[in-house]
Structures are given as structure tokens and as C-alpha cells.
Please model this.
Amino acid sequence: MSLSVIVLAAGQGTRMNSRLPKVLQPLAGRPMLAHVLDTCAALGAGGVHVVIGHGADEVREAFADSEVTWVDQTEQLGTGHAVAQALPGCTDDDIVVVLYGDVPLVRPGTLKQLVAAARADHLAVLTAKLDDPSGYGRIVRDKRRRVIRIVEEKDASESEREISEINTGLIACPVRLLRKWVSQLSANNAQKEYYLTDVIGMAVRDGLNVQATQATSKNETLGINDRRQLAEVEAVLRRRNAEALLDAGVTLIDPARVDVRGTLVCGRDVTVDVNVVFEGEVKLDDNVVIGPNCYIRDSQIEQDSVVHANTLIDSAHIGPRCNIGPFARVRPETYLGSEARIGNFVEVKKSAIGKGSKVSHLTYIGDATIGANTNVGAGTITCNYDGVNKHRTKIGSDAFIGSGVELVAPVEVGDGATIGAGSTITKDAPDGKLTVSRSRQTTIDGWKRPEKKAK
Ligand code: UD1
Ligand code: CA
Model:
């Protein structure tokens, strides 16, 4: 018997107050649905059927690379109706798990238990006990504590609303049985919708024992209907990511103030200060230190490098023992060799900077190659753009660029060259020589300051 999954993701998410379809709302930097599809992949399901409706084209496009089967639900007539659209694509002998696109935290292990509880001829439902069950469907049990049905909050009596055990929405069931029950649903309820939850009552009516399993942690089953819940789930994910980093040996100065929006892989004894955001795929090698308020995206930073406060690094490769910031901006396609130094208010773009070279203050390096052990003085600018095209600047090794130099690309500065401060360099500067381009300083003897005439 193999496993299929149906993911319900057609709803508009009215309570989000947003133009974006709910399942595309970002959660830890990725669409909410991406988290659910990760879980499906971890379950090893044979087929994943995702029911979409509201913003269907946008959802499909956001997951263009994904191998799921898209199922259209043109009118959102309820969760039962949504499942009915997907069931024709499922095989009778399969067990199907129904997941909700807006319940993204559930762990694969919890779902495996749910599937085990369903076996060949049972219906299993995942429930949770909540301090505040409001908004959720409630699990109604008889005197012998057997599940007999689920009642939606809007249809519940006052005493039923007192029940603290809620329906997480997730069920596992043999396809054959679910097909039969779903075809019998009616929309005779407060919301005039076909409720998937009504199949629980039907299973009991058919004499089946409904299995209720509980999630290992109650946070797993949080549903996201509004932005408060979105923020709550974001905080849970932040906490989960931080705990995984702590367990892997990373020092987080405050685990509540580090955001991982993607994947962060760390070596040994990495330290991350507060308010750091990691996006995409980031790799920090052994002993890397990230100061407060940094933003690092799709980059690798090699061992023993230090990134000081308020630094942005995007799509760059930082070699070992580098020193960057504070207040530096390292833009895409930047490669720093070992022991390079990028100081405050320095912007580097699409450039390679060699071993031990220093660019310490107030500088723009764009489309450049710099050799080893070169020093770039304060306020240097590579003038890489002529208004139409970008041009490259090449600086050799052991060069010394004085302060306030403009390098008008395309231009080359040789190995061991020295460029006098304040120069505008438009022609190549040869190896080992001093090149200066500025008007000579003169002092005018006998010059008098103008004086105010007395009235
Ligand atoms: C649902 C459950 C409720 C449970 C809660 C858990 C029903 C009737 N109620 O309520 O018992 O406690 O989830 O979070 O199932 N969807 C579709 N097509 C539709 C309607 C909904 O694809 O026609 C999708 C939505 O996009 C969403 C999911 O199904 O991802 C749940 O729908 P939603 O309207 O959020 O149901 P709840 O009111 O939260
Ligand atoms: Ca919901």
C-alpha cells in the first residue's frame, strides 16, 4: 500500500487582508506552501496533489520546478469539496494524507504516526489540546472517550465550544473509504460549505473506530488564518532554527534575534550576534564571527573571518581570516582572498580582491581585480560606468593607491605602483612607479584677503 498526499491550498485567505494568495505568504523567507511541500518530500509520498484555486496561476508559477500534480478547484466550496477534486487522481488501494496549506509546521514524524494509525481500514485524525481553542473545529467524544464527530466553531453549541481538543485538519485514510464518504457530504451548515470534517461522523456511523493521534508538540499544528498567526508561526520557526544551530554548536548571543530565511550551515565555534538575518544558502566555516545587525545572503565565509556590525554581504565568497565592516556593503560576485580587509562605508561589487589587500575606508570598488597586499586609500572610486557600459579596473599586487583617487575604467595599475592622493587616473599606471595626476600646488606671495570697506 503506498502513500498519496492531498494538500489543500485553494482558499483566498480573506483574513490575511492581502492581495497575495495565502499559501504564498512568506514564512521564514519562503512561501508558506514550500514548507508543506518539504514535509511531503520527507514523507516520501508517491503522489502529491495540490488543490489550488485562488491565485492558482501565481501559485503554479511560484512552484514551476516542483513535481506536484496541480488540481484546480475553481470555486472554493469547502475543504471536503477541495478533497473531492483531488481524489480522482488517487489510487483506491493507497492511503491518503490530507494536509492544509495553511498548517505548515507539522513534522514528518507526526504524520508517519498518523499514517500508521490509519492502516488499511481506519480513519485517523490529528488532534491537539489548546489553551485557547477558538477558531478551530472541536473534537466531540462520547462518554467512553471515543471520537464521534468534529464540529466547526461556527456550528458548535456553547458547551461544545468549551472543548479544548481541536481538529488540526490533518487526516489519514484509505482512499477507497474517503472516496465514499466525500461523495456523501452536504453543505448543510453555518458556512454553507462541504466540510471535510464531516467524514469523521460518517466513519463512526459506518461502525469504524476513528483513531485520534496527537502531535508531539502543539506548535506543530498551528493554522495560519491571519497575520497574527503568521507572526506567531514565524516566531516558532525562528526558535526551531535557532535551537538547531545551538545544538550544532553555534553561539547565538540571543536565539530570539536571529532569522534564518533559507539554509545556514555552520562549522565549529561560529558566533552570531543579535539581529542578524541570513537569507538563501549561507555557509559559515569554523570560528567565523558575525557582529550585530548584519544581513548575509547566498554567501560563503571561510574560517576565522570576522564580519563587524551593520554589514551587508550578498552572493559573495569571503576567504579565510578576512575582516569586514562595520558598515560595509559586499555585493554580488565579490571574491575576497584570505586576510583581505574591507572597512567602513566601503562598497564592493563584482570584484576580486587578493590576499592581504586592504580597502579600509569610504570607497567604491566595482568591476575590479586587485592583486595581493595592495592598499587602497580612503575615498577611492573605480569609475566603472560611462553611462552606457561597465568597464573593468585592474590593480596589481603590492600597489599603493593614495586617498581620494578616481580610477576611470578601463584602466590598469601595475604591480608595486603608487598612485598619488587626489589623482584622476585615465591611463594605465606602470609597475613600480609613482603616478600622479593633479595640478601642482602653488602659493601666491603678497596676496591679500579682500577686506570689508568701512561705511
Ligand atoms: C479548518 C477545519 C477546522 C480545523 C482548522 C485547522 C474544516 C471545515 N475546518 O478550518 O476543523 O480546526 O482547519 O487549521 O475543514 N481550502 C481549499 N478549498 C476550499 C476551502 C479551503 O483548498 O474550498 C483550503 C484553504 O486554502 C486552507 C485549508 O483548506 O489551506 C483550510 O481552510 P480554512 O478555510 O482555512 O479552514 P479553517 O476555517 O481554518
Ligand atoms: Ca485555516
